[in-house]
Design goal:
Blueprint lengths: L3 E5 L4 H12 L4 E6 L19 E5 L5 H11 L3 E4 L6 H6 L1 H24 L3 H6 L1 E7 L23 H20 L3 E6 L1 E3 L8 H10 L4 E4 L5 E6 H14 L5 E4 L4 E3 H15 L11 E4 L14 H7 L7 H14 L1 H9 L11
Parallel strand pairs: 1-2, 1-4, 2-3, 4-5, 5-6, 6-10, 7-9, 8-12
Antiparallel strand pairs: 9-11
Helix pairs in contact: 1-8, 2-4, 4-6, 7-9, 9-11
Length: about 350
């Protein structure tokens, strides 16, 4: 079968990075399926959309008829499922939309994929893959030692992470019950270009450029394991091409930092690339009331991915932060309309 990929959520942060890479490398035809909610942005696909390999369909993964039609018409050889409500703070304010999209939408998409897969000939059934992209947040919170792995028990604490945990279980159930060839990846915190500015790193960059406070939850000691989005995309493609159906792969960069360390790193990069007339951007750091149910530490052990598929991240945290800050400095055309329209930087998730 000719390589033809459906990428759900392809106008989002990770999805658009994946689409840009697939189209750039001529990997096959790519159909982006995206509802275009607040975080979906076709400007992130500006360059990819110029290619004859690219096409776009505005659709909701909860719409069963639309999903069946899309599979029937496009006839994919594989699916990258990234469509999801993804921000913990928003899930605190409005949990039911997360249940609707992440749980109900995933089940609807799985059923459409299953019906399509059953209609393929034996050879194409054998090469078809449904890849579900998830998060390390499904595992809950770590203590000061240890790492999440593919065998870590699930213990989600937020509406977002619970909805993603449910979707992970549904994907595996469609494999175990119906034989659908699925792959699951759980990644650590991503960062990089085209990141919607409700998330920590772009929020800090843009608040700093606007001279606004840089909010740090609690005492800033919560730890995350950071992964550059392009390293994540390389892992996703590798898993799709070489991963064993039914397997799970954890993707992490071994870049653990406290939230305060992350904010200080962004400030240091800005100090070097766009210095203030006097002082440092770090003077804008402001400690705010902690997020409800804030997990203390996430960290991933990616050794299975490294050992079995040969993946290795290219970016260190230091090189990745500097290149990310540089991208935002150079691409105000992308982020300024968002800050002036859809999201100005106000705090979410205080319910």
């Amino acid at each position: 079968m000719e390589k033809r990929y459906i990428v759900t959520g392809g106008a989002g942060f990770i999805g658009s990075a994946l689409v840009r890479a697939l189209v750039r490398d001529g990997a096959g035809k790519v159909l982006v399926v995206d509802k275009l909610t607040y975080a979906g942005n076709l400007d992130s696909l500006r360059d990819a959309s110029k290619s004859p390999l690219y096409s776009f369909e505005q659709a909701d993964i909860c719409d069963a008829a639309a999903m069946r039609r899309i599979f029937s018409e496009f006839r994919p050889s594989g699916v990258f499922h990234l469509a999801a409500e993804s921000h913990v703070d928003r899930s605190i304010d409005g949990p039911m939309e997360f249940v609707r999209t992440n749980v109900g939408g995933t089940a609807t998409l799985l059923q459409a994929a299953l019906e399509y897969w059953r209609g393929l000939d034996a050879a194409d059934r054998g090469t078809f893959r449904f890849q579900h992209i998830s998060t390390d947040e499904v595992f809950g919170s770590l203590g000061p030692e240890g790492f999440f792995s593919e065998t870590t028990p699930y213990a989600p604490h937020s509406p977002y992470s619970a909805s993603k945990a449910a979707s992970d279980h549904l994907v595996r159930a469609w494999r175990d019950t119906y034989g659908l060839p699925v792959l699951v990846t759980n990644c650590s915190n991503n960062y990089g270009p085209y990141h919607f500015p409700e998330k920590l790193i772009p929020l800090v960059i843009l608040n700093a450029l606007d001279g606004k406070p840089l909010p740090v939850y609690g005492d800033g000691r919560n730890v995350r394991d950071w992964l550059h989005v392009e390293d994540h995309v390389a892992a996703l493609r590798l898993v799709h091409e070489r991963g064993a159906p039914g397997e799970t792969y954890c993707v992490g960069g071994h870049n653990e930092r406290t939230n305060l360390e992350v904010v200080n790193a962004v400030c240091a990069a800005l100090d070097g690339l766009k210095p203030l007339p006097s002082g440092s951007y770090s003077s804008l750091i402001t400690f705010v009331k902690d997020r409800p149910g804030h997990d203390s530490r996430y960290a991933i052990d990616p050794s299975k991915l490294v050992r079995e598929l040969g993946w290795k991240p290219r970016e260190t945290f230091e090189t990745g932060i500097r290149s990310t800050v540089r991208w935002y400095l150079d691409n105000e055309w992308w982020w300024r309309p968002i800050r002036e329209g859809r999201y100005s930087g106000a705090r979410l998730g205080v319910s």
